[in-house]
Amino acid sequence: MVSFILPGNSASGGYEVANSCRFNNDDNAELSKTPGSNGNRRKWTFSCWVKRSQISSTHEYLLSAEGETTVYFRGELLQTELYDGNNYYIRTSRVFRDPSAWYHIVCVWDTENSTEANRLRLYVNGVEETSFSASAYPTQNYDSYMNKSGNVIRIGSYVNDNDGKNFDGYMAEAVLVDGQALTPTSFGEFDEDTNIWKPIDVSGLTFGTNGFYLDFEDSSNLGNDVNGGTDFTVTNLTAIDQATDTCTNNFATMNALDNYHADGTFSNGNLEVTSRNTGYTYNTSTFGVNTGKWYWEVKWSAQPTGSSNQVLIGIAKRPTTSSTIWLGSQLYTYGYQGSDGHVKNNNGNATGSSATTYSVGDIISVALDLDNNKLHFAKNGSWTNSSDPAGNSGGVTITAPDSTSGDSGFYFAAFGDGNDSLQETGQFNFGSPIHSISSGNSDGNGYGNFEYSVPSGYYALNTKNLAEYG
Question: Model's pTM, two decimal places?
């Protein structure tokens, strides 16, 4: 089932998380440090907020300590484990496969507890997991490898083997409390208006000997321990991996679950998409909208050597489930094609009055006006088809979103190609980019980091704006 966020899915008010860290599995990215003294190996609490990008069958490690004590996604499941010849763990029955959602995970180890089932505990979004597909609890007073002097602690990777086991997604507010078995209320609370679980300020916690707090607010040092402990060593993470997509303001990404025949590839926090190389198709975003005015940018970053220019950037009212449908080949899909510069809709018919071609390296601005049912495109900051998005003139007239024929009634950002044997790569910027921005522009609410000016009255696709204008 394809997952997406519709307007209004946002907690209101309270503590705001400014930044997250974006981990890309292919980069073998991680943060690591080695404790210089023993802490409490029997009692500790780990907390973090995560938004997954890839939901695969492999293991994706959030926390690991040399020896081996870990917290990780085991495919769609969540698990904490100690392996030292013996194997102690709990593995959820519930699955976690929504790439549009932020999850708050709390893992508690308390082997001093006299109740066996309370020695390992997992909480997600403030609620304890009590149904497990498999479990094996340690004996009382069993030592984990966490907080042991000389044992490396890693964030985002497996301590003994990085290959293919790195976390892929966004992480915020990573905390280890050494020596205490805490509940989720030390890290979050339910919003009184929406009942959505949201973060609270954790800076006042007592973190203990080897505890840490990573808020990812220093782009020059993403391993900064704001608790005051030794900073983590940063591996394969740079300033561009600092994101403003957080658990208090969730930004759109492209949707890895909308991937017909699983032939497209997603990377860099699901903001880079490479289309499939057999058949026609397109991919859509995690956020859908049916009202308001919205802005995003797409950098066409690559195409196969020697191929023709068939890239398509636009919107669609539905995910595709066919290998014969391309963006702009049917109603309710609109694709601005690089090769001829026209916007295609309904069997490839050209819409709009003029043609502006584009090529690799160009940045395409998209301004979607669902108050007036207009779609505007710009190439490197210059609007096409006599467009003036702010003034509601020019552009392409689109069919109003509705829920006929079983459609969702919402439009989604979309990307694809118009050739059944080519691959195109696009980098999406919904306000938290994966490529360097030379200028830096935000919307009227101060959200986003865009290359070109956001038209007046248009907003970045995030939950703060959706709650106000969606």
Answer: 0.94
